[in-house]
Batch of 4 targets.
Target 1
Amino acid sequence: MADVTLDGLRVCREIALTGSFSAAARSLGYSQPAISRQVAAMEAAVGYRLFAREVRGVSVTPAGAAVVAHAARILGAVSGLHREIDALGDRLAGRVTVGAFPASMAVLIPRAVARLSTEHPGLVVAPTEAATPTLLHDLRSGRLHVAVIATGQELPDYDLDEFARYRLHSGDLCVAVPTGHRLDGAGRVDVRELIGETWIVGAGSAGDPQFGAWPTLTDPVIGHRVTGWPARLGLVAAGLGICLVPGLAARSVPRGVTTVIVDDPSWSGRAALALTEKSVSDGARAVVAALRTTAEELQLVQG
C-alpha cells in the first residue's frame, strides 16, 4: 500500500495553488509525468481522487481539499523542525540589504524580516523600497544583496541572466471592493462580474507594475486617478469604486475593504522574484529562504 509522502503533499499543495498539473510542474521544477505519478501515489494512499480534470486545469475534490489543508500544516511543521535544528548551530551575523518593489513592502518584506529576527538574531536585515530599475542598478553595484521584483504580463522584460533568480510568489492580481459591495464576500469571481464597475486607478513608480482597471477589460469606467495605495484604498473604502491589488498586498487592505480573486483565462498573471548575485552569501541565502517561506504562507492563505 502506498504511503503519504512529503513530496506528494508538496505536489498536491502546488497543484491546488497553481490550478493545473503543468503549472505545478513548472513551479516545482518537475516533469509533468512526475507530477502525475506523485498524485497517483497520493490517491492510492488515501483511497480517493484528489483532483478532477476540467477544460482549463483541474479542480480540487473534497478529499483533495482535506489533503491540501493538512499539507500546509505538515510541511510548515517540517520547515519549522529544520529551522530549529539549523538554529542550534546558527552563526549567521552581519548586515544584509534588501530592496523591494512597493507592493511587496506591505506584507511580504516586513513578515520575512520579522521571521529572520527570530531565526537568525545575529543577522541585521535592512529593507528599502524602490522601483525595479533602481533595484537592479543597486544589485549590480553591490548596494543591495537581495532584490525583490515583479515580473509577468504587461511588465517590462528585464535581462536577468546575470542574477540568481528565486520564484517567490505566483499569486495574481486581486480586486479590492468596499464592504457591502455586491462582490464583498464572494471570494472568487469570474472576470465578467467586473464589467460595468467603476475603477480607481493609478500608476506605480517608473518600471514598477501599473495599476489601472482589470487588464483584459475593454473600455472600463474610470472614476478616479490617484497615485498612492492609501489614497486608492481610501476611495474604495468610501464606496467610490474598486481597484486592483497585488496578491502579495491583499492582506494589508484597510477596514472597510475586502479583496476577491478573479478567474480570467486571458490573463497569464504576474510573479514576484528574489534576485541575488550568482555568488550568494550565507546571509543573503537566509533572506531568500525567509522570503520564500513567507510568500508560501501568504499564498496558502490567499488561495
Note: The chain has eight helices and 14 strands.
Target 2
Amino acid sequence: MDKVVLDFITWAELSGWMITLKSEPELQLNQQWIARYKIIPAEYASFLRLVSQCMTSSEQTWFLCEADYNNSSISEFHWNEYELISLEAAANDDVWKSEITSWWDQYLPIMMSVHDGYSFYAIDLSNETGAVVHGEEPEFEEVTKVAEDFPHFLQLITSGSIAAG
C-alpha cells in the first residue's frame, strides 16, 4: 500500500474525519466512467481501493469514492455535479457545452465541498504528473494548481497547508 495514503487515513481518523475503509481492496468502476477516464494515477487508485467514504466531520467536504463514480452513492451530489451545473448554464449553446465536456474529460474530480460555496479539487489528467487543481463557483473551469500530484495533495491537507472545510 502507498504509505502516503495510509498516513493520510490515519491523520484523517485522528482529526475527526468520517472514514470507512473497504472490506475488499478491489476497484470496480462502471464502464462509462472507465471509458472517460482511461488512466488515473496509481496513488489515487490505491486510495479508491482502500476507502469507501472519506469526509470531514462537518460533512461539507468529502473525497469522491468508488460508489460516487458508480452513481450508487447516497449523496445528493453527483460525482460530476459541477460539470452538470456548468452544462446547465450553457443552456442551448452546443459549442460551449462541448468545451465544458472536453475540459472535464481532462480533469477528474476527487474532492467536493459545499463549505463556503461550491468548490472542488481535481486531478489534471492532461499531464504525466497528475497535478491537483482547485476550482470554485461560479467559473468551475477556471482552476489553480495546488499540488504536484495526489500524494503531495494529501501531504498538504495533513500539514494544514490546504484547509479541507
Note: The chain is about 40% helix and 20% strand.
Target 3
Amino acid sequence: MRHAFLLPLIASLSLTACGPSEPIRIGFVGGLTGRVADLGIAGRNGFQLAVEQMNSAGGVQGRQIELIIKDDGQDPAQARKVTEELVAAKVVAIIGPMTSAMAEPVLAAATAGGIAVISPTATTTALTGKDDLFLRVTSDTASYADLSARYHFNKNGVRRVAAVFDTRNRAYTESWLNDFRKTFTALGGTLSAEIGFESGDETKHAALVAQLLASAPDALLFISGAVDTARFAQQAREADAGRKLISVEWSGTEELIGLGGKAVEGLYLAQYFDRNDRTAEYQGFRRAYEGRFQQAPGFASVAAFDATRAALEAIGRAKRSTPVKEALLERGPFTGAQQAVRFNRFGDAERQAFVTTIRDGAFVVAD
C-alpha cells in the first residue's frame, strides 16, 4: 500500500499548550440525532477511525490523541454551544460541521476561540475564497451543480427541470440551486419550477411532487438529504412520472438506497466518492472501516477521515509554534482514503467528482 495509514508521524508538534504527557485534543461536531443523523454518524465514524489508527501507531510525536465528540442537532444554537465547549476543552482543531447550515454558528464560535474548523462536507459557496479559520476537504457546490447540469443537458437530453430544495439547510440548498441554474440556463435549459420546503415529519412529499409535475418537466431535481430524497422518489414513481430523477451529493448516503428501495433505482447524483475504487489505498481504508463499524464507508465517512488525517498530519509536520491553519495550508498535500487533500490559500479544496447513478441497489459511476 502506497500510503500506510498506520505509520506514525515523524515531525515536531505544533502545539505549545500541551505538556509532554498531555494528549492532543481534537473535536468533532456533527448532527448525530434527527433527520440528518446518517451524515453525522458516518462523519463521526470516519473521524474516530482516523484518530484510532493514529493512536495505534503511537500518536503524534509520541502523544496520544483524545477525541471529543459533540452533537449539533442540526440546530444553530446548539451548534454554537457545543463548539464553545470544544474551545473551552482546548481542542487543537474542530472537524465538522457536516452541513452548510451549521457552518456559520460553528465557525463564529471557533473563531472567537482561535480554533481552525475543517469541514468534511459543508460545500456552500458563501464560504468560498475567504481568508478565515474555515477549511474544507471537498469542493463547493459549484463543482457538483455544474457537473450535474452539463451531464443531464448534454447526455440525457434534459431541457426542463423542476426542483425542490430544503430550506432547513438553506446555505447549501440555495447555493446548489443557484449554481445549477446558472449552468443549466446558460446551456439553454429551463427551470420549470423551484419550490422550497422545510423538511420534517409533516413534509407533504406527494403534494410537492404533484407541484413539480404540474410544470411539465423532463426531470425532477431533489436538493435534499437522503430521507426526503427517498420519499420524493417514491412519490414520483407512484405517480408514474417517467421523468429522470436527479439529486445532490448531500443525499448520497447508504441510507438513501435503504429507504428508497426500488424507487431510487436510476436516480442520478454527482459526488466525489467512487465506491468501486480498486486501488490499494482505498481498499485498505475500506477493510479497516468495515472491520471497525461492520458496514461499508460512505462519502461522509471518507471525507471526515480525510479531514482528520489532514489536521493531524499538519500538526505533526509543522514547527512547534505554527498555527493549525497555517500548517494545513503550507504542509500539504495530505493522505486521503481515496484522493489526496490539497488546500488553496483560502483553505478550499478540490476533489474529482463523478456523476453516479443507483443500479441494482448500489451507487455506480454513470456512463
Note: The domain at 141-271 is CATH 3.40.50.2300 (Rossmann fold).
Target 4
Amino acid sequence: MVAYSIKDLESLSGVKAHTLRIWEKRYGIIQPARTDTNIRYYHESELQKILNISLLNRHGLKISKIANLTNEELKTRVAETIQVGSAFEDQLDSLMLAMFDLEESKFTLILDHQIESKGFEMTMQNVVYPLLDKLSMMWLAGSIKGVHENFVVNIIRKKTIVAIENLKCKECKPEMRYLIFLPENESHELSLLFLHYILASAGIKVLNLGINVSIYDVIDAYTIFRPKYIFSIFNDSFAETPLQPYIDELVKNCPDSHVLISGFQTTSQNIKLPSKSKILYSITDVKSFITHT
C-alpha cells in the first residue's frame, strides 16, 4: 500500500500543508488514516483528489463549491478546465492524474497537445522534467508504485525517439560529430535521448551508443567514428568508486576528441579535469556550448 504524509501532498500538489489541514477540517475534503501509533497518512485516492481540487481552485473555483462536488463531477470539471493552451502547472497535474489511472491515451493526448503548441524542447523542460522530479521525490519517499514510473518513462521515451526521427536531417555542422553514451551501471536513458535531440536539432551528427556501454566499446567507436566530442552522463554510476580514473582513461585513449561530462557524480566528486575535457552542468550549458563552438 502506498502512503503519503501531508508533506508529500504539499510537495506534489503545491498546496501548503496548513491549507490542506484547513480544507480537511472545514470541508472534510480528505480524510487521513492513522497508524497504530496515531501518525496521519493519506492514500493515493486523496492525492488524486487534491490534485484535482488544486487545479480547479487555481482557475477561480471556490473551495466551498468544490467541496460539494461528487468525485465524478470533480473529474468532469477538471476535464472541462484543461485546454490545449492551459498553464504548464495544469498540464503537470493532469499528467499525474492520468499516470495514477494508467490512462495512456489521456496521458499521450495531453503530452501531444503540449508538444504541438509549445514545441518538444519546451515541453520537456517545462512539463516533463518537472514531472520526473516529482516522481523522483515520490520514489525516494516510497510513495509511488514501480508501474507508474515505468508507465511515464516508456511513453516519454517513445515520444523522444519520434521527435529525433522527425528532425530534418540537415547536419549543417558535419565537423561537429558527437559520440554520446551512458557508461556501465547507468540506465536513465531519457537524459541521453534528450541530449541526442538537442544536438541533432542543432544540425550536429550524433552517434548514440545507448546505455550500459563499456569503455572498450566507446574506444572502438571512437576509432571508427572519429568524433570531435565524446559526451557522457554520470548519475548512478561511480557512486561508490572514483570517477577520476575513468575520465583519465577515456581522455588518454581518445586523444583527438574533447570529452564532455555531466551528471550528479561530476559535481559530487572532486574531479581534476584533464586537458580537452569539460563539465557541462545543465541543458542550458549544453546549448550554450553548442552555440559557441
Note: Residues 81 and 177 are 46 Å apart (CA to CA).
